[in-house]
Amino acid sequence: MDIFLDPFFQRALVGGVLIGVTAPLIGIFLVLRRLSMIGDTLSHVSIAGVALGMLVGVYPLGMGLVFALAASFAIEKLRKEYKTYAELSIAIIMSAGIALATLFFSLGRGFNISVSGYLFGNIYTLDRLDLLLVGIVTAVTVLFVSCNFKEMFLLFFDEEAAAVSGLPIRFYNVAVTMLTALVISAAIKIVGALLVSSLVTIPVAASLRLAKSFKHSVILAVLFSELAVVFGLVLAAWFNLAPGATVVLLLIAFLLLTFLVKRNLRV
Questions:
Q1: Whether the Cβ atoms of residue 49 and residue 38 lie closer than 8 Å to each other
Q2: CATH assignment of 7-195?
Q3: Quick one: DSSP state of residue 212?
């Protein structure tokens, strides 16, 4: 149990718990918008920003956040241009992110080992600046969703009804995409760019199997996420496993468990 007394593990636990709240909280709205794959897109763009930050000597997570925010605006612009084929916006921006990341990697081969921590996650290396960034992102996300919960619920369940009632649809669409960019950028060092979308979508998928209402699904999604983060970090520390992968595999286990529970309830 001495692991709980180590500062690096305490920082990892705090960072994981914070992201465990924000990722599914924003993920539930992405699922309703049928934009579950946007997490993968923004994570690839964030990695391009991280690589550029390392190349020019700027705080990597900060540069990744800037890139992700720029990508969020680009996605909304392209979604407006391709209304009938909205998923094209995600494919285009993902392609651009992968291309830029590959270019920056080739220009800075010396930091390829360092950047692997952002690709696969390295929560144990979180420092105070990283925690500050995660804390700010968490505060902004929770505050925005709390203050606009009813409006966002109406908008993402029935956009036409929201438009008739006078809600600023474009504002909320842009806001949710920007919040997603913030969450993805803050989380890539925790679970890694290759797995970060799992933390956004899998808890939501599990909650939708059992939830009886929208609020219930939000609560369950956050609960599944937090359980996976806390137990995943403990198991990873005890058995010397990759923490990001352990968290995601626990989420998969929870999802499979919901299928079994649902099936038993039907019998």
A1: no
A2: 1.10.3470.10
A3: S
